[in-house]
Design a protein that fits this description.
The protein is of the alpha+beta class and 329 residues long. The protein is built from 10 helices and 9 strands. Strands 1-2-3-5-4 form a 5-stranded antiparallel β-sheet. β2 (33-41) and β3 (46-53) form a beta hairpin. The longest helix has 27 residues, at 271-297.
Length: 329
């Protein structure tokens, strides 16, 4: 637990003795350890904070500085995010590299198996959810400190990224994935009209809402990168995140979700790109679930969330990928 590191860091930063209470870890994240806690200074100053730090081993290798800069980029804008406080790329402040944010009070996130998680507010949440995604894609990637990328490289770079992850973590033959990688490589989509900030894991469950129809904060930016906006849209609309509703992120009908995103982003859906990135989303998902299973098999983790990911979502994306390949081959 990072309590002693937080006491030392905040006492120095605040210039007074600080105590830490209510320290609790949230399980479920694969790339960061996430804790919430209350920090109270000797003067009576009290803040509710969230720590995101690197674990000893990680399912997905990501850059915490890129995540922090993305949050900074959208702080105070019409894309709601937690307020960033401090980032340390070394182990001095938090015991391992990580960053602090202020807690977003009163928020809830949908569980993967929770049917109709937004109730009567699904449409309102959906309009905000896909509008925020469009605003992310309308922003200049340079503002978030992301590296430059040629539009022609957007698809091939992501394909190479997940192929390398699969090659590193595969523990048995996966003929469906082999076929999908070959099809994707042979049928690259047209370059996007511009490179966008891609959140990388934009979906139901990765945002907070207030239970009354208001989106409070977009979370989990650890996979942020420059790329084709279709990538985020396809992941957000993947059936896995529909909470059994048949609607993207359990919110709006697909056509309305796309129209909302188009209006906010200034982009237009390209049908050829859409077909490619929707199949890519299933490939990405399968590789993530295989990596989750590998963490358990190799004994690097005993997290029940990873055990679940390596079984149920794995089976789901195996089925949907088989159906998608049948449609294109």
């Amino acid at each position: 637990m990072p309590a002693e590191h937080l006491v030392r860091f905040l006492s120095t930063r605040w210039g007074e003795t600080v105590s830490i209470t209510g320290l609790k870890r949230f399980h479920g994240g694969s790339a960061r350890q996430t804790y919430r806690f209350d920090a109270t200074g000797a003067s009576g100053r009290c803040e509710a904070l969230v720590l995101r730090r690197d674990p000893p081993s990680s399912l997905i290798e990501t850059d915490r500085l890129a995540e922090y800069r993305a949050i900074q980029c959208f702080a105070g804008t019409d894309v709601p995010v937690p307020e960033p406080v401090f980032c340390d790329e070394g182990p001095e402040s938090f015991g391992s590299p990580g960053f602090l944010m202020r807690e977003v009070p009163g928020g809830a996130a949908a569980g993967l198996l929770e049917p109709e998680p937004y109730g009567d507010h699904a449409a309102a949440i959906g309009r905000q959810f896909f509008t925020a995604l469009g605003h992310i894609h309308a922003e200049d990637p340079g503002k978030a400190g992301l590296p430059a990328m040629a539009p022609a490289d957007a698809a091939s770079a992501r394909l190479a990224h997940w192929k390398a992850a699969f090659d590193a973590d595969a523990f048995r033959p996966e003929p469906l994935l082999d076929a999908a990688f070959r099809w994707l490589a042979a049928n690259l989509p047209p370059p996007p009209p511009r490179i966008s900030i891609v959140h990388g894991d934009y979906r139901s469950g990765n945002f907070l809402h207030d239970g009354a129809g208001r989106l409070l904060a977009v979370l989990d930016w650890e996979m942020v990168h420059p790329g084709d906006a279709h990538e985020d849209l396809a992941w957000a609309c993947d059936p896995l995140w529909s909470n059994f509703s048949g609607r993207p992120a359990a919110t709006l009908p697909l056509a309305e979700a796309i129209a909302t995103w188009e209006a906010a982003s200034g982009l237009r859906l390209n049908p050829e790109s859409w077909r490619w990135w929707r199949l890519f989303a299933q490939v990405q998902g399968l590789v993530i679930w295989i990596s989750a299973a590998r963490e358990i098999i190799d004994g690097r983790s005993h997290d029940p969330v990873l055990m679940f990911a390596g079984t149920i979502p794995y089976r789901f994306h195996t089925l949907t990928l088989a159906q998608s390949l049948e449609a294109v081959l």
